[in-house]
Fold these 2 entries.
Entry 1:
Amino acid sequence: MISFANPHLLYLLLIVPVVAVLYYIAVLARKRTLARFGNLKTLSPLMPDASRYMGWVKTTLALLALTFIIIALARPYTPSGEGATTEEKTARGIEVMLCVDVSNSMLASSTDDPRGISRLQRAKMLLEKLIDKMNDDKVGLIVFAGDAYTQLPITSDYISAKMFLNGITTDMVPTQGTAIGAALDMAINSFTPDSEFRKAIVLITDGENFEDNAVEIAELAAESGIEVDVVGIGSGKGAPIPVAPGASDYMRDYNGNEVKTALNEQMAKDIAKAGDGIYVSGNSSAAVADIDNQLSKLATTEYKRSAAVSSANELFPIAALIALIFLVIDGMLSYSKISWLRDINFFTKKTDNESGN
C-alpha cells in the first residue's frame, strides 16, 4: 500500500481535469472561428502543416507531467514492511524528544530581513539535519503553541520522523500562544517508561513564552535526569508576522500598526540553564553541530532495534522522473505535423485508380 507524507496536496489533482476541459473549450472556439472563413474541409488544404492531433498529444503529455509532479510533491512512499525486510540488531543510543514551536510568531522571518526564511522553515531544516546525524538514537516529536500535542511517539524510525517534521504547520494547534512549559511537561512524560536510556529534550522556539513557567518545568526535567537543550529562532531586532505563510501582508494591532515579534534570547537561555543543557542560536552555522556534540556527551544504552534491510521506499523520485520524461517528450514535439508523416493519410482508403486497378 502506498502512503503519502503530504496527502492534502493531492487535491491539486483537481486542476488536471479542469485544464483538460478548458483546452477542449479552446479547441471548439478555434473551430468556430475558422468556420467563419469557410468550410473546414475546404480550409484544411490551405493549412498543410496544421495537425489535428498534435495539440491533444502535447496537452495530454503536459497534463500527465503535471499529475506526476503533484504526486511527487505529495511524497509517496511504501510504509516499512512493504517491499522491505527487517532484522533485529543490537544498538546503543539515547532518547531525544524534539519540541517545535508552531505559534504564529514562527511565521516571521528568522533574520532581520522581513522577507527572509521563516522561523518555522529554519527550525524544520535544522531538526532534519539533526535527525540525519542520528544513528541508533530514538526520537519523538511534539508541536506546541497555546497547547502541546504529540506528533510522533518515541521511535527509531527516522524516515517517519522526517516525514512528520516536514508536515508541520502553524495550523496544527488551534489555540494560539506559546506554552513552552506544557511542551516540556509532555516531553518528560513521552519517554519510554522505566527505561535506562539517557534522555534529552531539544526545544526549538523564538522564546516568547506567555503561558506558563517554562523555567520551573525545565528544572523538574533536570532533576529527573533529562537534559533540556534550546535552539533560539529569530532575531533580537524583531520581524513582522505574515498573515499567512508566504504572504506579503502582515498582522496588525488595533491601531493598524504592524505587530513585530523578536527572539526572547534571555528566556531561551534561562530554560537551557535550568535544564542543565545548552543554548544555541538557530542562525548560527554551527547550530546543528553544537546540539549534536552536546547530545553525544550523554551515555548510550544498549537495546534491540528492528532495522530495515531495505528501508521504506521513497517513491517521489520515481514520480518526478516520470514527470521529467513526459516534459522532455512534450518539448521535443511541435504542434505542426511530423515531417515524415506529413504525406501519409491514415484515414482515407485508396481508390481503385490509386492502387493501379
Note: Confidence is low (pLDDT under 50) at residues 350-357.
Entry 2:
Amino acid sequence: MPKYDLNQIAAQFHTYREISPHGDGHINDTYLARASESFILQRINREVFHDPEQVMHNIVLVTEHLRQKLAKQGNTDPRAALRVIPTLDGKPFYRTEEGDYFRMYTFIDHARSYSEKPSPAIFYNAARGFGRFFSLLSDFDPSRLYETIAHFHDTPARYRALMDAAERDQLGRAAQVREELSFVRARQSDTAVVTRLLGTPDLPLRVTHNDTKLNNIMLDDQTGEPVCVIDLDTVMPGSILYDFGDSIRFGASSAAEDEPDLDKVYCDLTLYESFTKGFLEETAAFLTPTEKQLLPFSARLLTLECAMRFLTDYLEGDTYFKTSRAGQNLDRARTQLKLVKDMEEKAEQMEQITIKYLSPQDKSTFSCA
C-alpha cells in the first residue's frame, strides 16, 4: 500500500490539526481527524470493495433517507445517522492519484461500540438500534442500491468457494482441516434455505446492513440507549435474516471470535433472548411470518457461513481478513463451527425464546422444527 500524506488528503475535506489511527476494523484503514470538531477519515479497501463509488452511492442514499425519516419523527439528535462529509468540490469521496478512495464522516461523540461479550442490557439496546435502523429503511426501495460485493451472503456460493479452495489447496493446508471440511459438507443442505426463498413475498429483498456485529452499533455513554448504526460499506439488498443471524453469531457467543480453546465457546441463550426481544420490538410490525419463523435458524446459518469464509481465507493464504498471528483465521473458523454445533443442540430452546416475543397470531402460525 502506498504511503499517504494524510494531512494532504484530509485537506480535501477541511483542514485538521491532528490525524491518528482509530479503531480495530478488519477491512478499511481508519483515522481520527481533529479540528474544532472530530471526524472519521477512512481509506476504502479496494481489494474488498472493487467499486468504491458504488459503495458511496449506497451510503449517501441510505444516510439521507435515515435523516429524513428521523426528522419526520422529531429526532433531532445529530448523532442518530452517519453524515458523509463532502470534499471541497462536493464529492462524497476523494480519489488519490494512485486510485485509492478516502471518505469522511462526522465523529459520533459521547457514544461507544462494544467488541467484548456484552451484558444482556447492552445486547438488548443494540438489538433495538439495529431493529430501528431496519424499520426506518423498511420503505426504502432496495433496487436503488448496488450489490457492492456480489453474492456476499450467497451461502451456497460460499460453500462452493470453500470446496474449490480445498480442492486447489494452493498452500498445502487442506490436510489440517479435514474434520472441519467434513462438518461443513454434512450441512450443505442448510446453505440454500434462505437463498431459495429470497425475493419472494415470504422472504422479500430489503435494505440490509450485512455486518451487524456489536461493534457496528453506537450506544450512548450515559444512558446506554442506541444512537447510530455505523460501518455501512456493505449496505445493499438482501435478507434481514442475514443481519439478525450475524448479530447472534457475534454477540451471543461466549468467547472471542478467534478463541483457540473451544471448550470456552457456546451460544449464550440469555444473550440470544435479550437480542431477540429488542429486535422484535422494533421489527415485528413489518416482518413476514416466514422471516419470523427463520430467525433462530438464521443464527446458525450465518455462523456456518462465516466459518466457511474464515476457512476459505485460511486455505487461500489469509488475503481477505486481517490477521495478527499465524493460524488466526483457522481459529476463527473453528470457533464458528463449535457455535454451529451448540446452536443445533439448542435449536428448540432458541425457537421457544423467539415465540415468547411474538404476537398471539404469530405464535399460532410458528411451527418448531
Note: The radius of gyration is 20 Å.
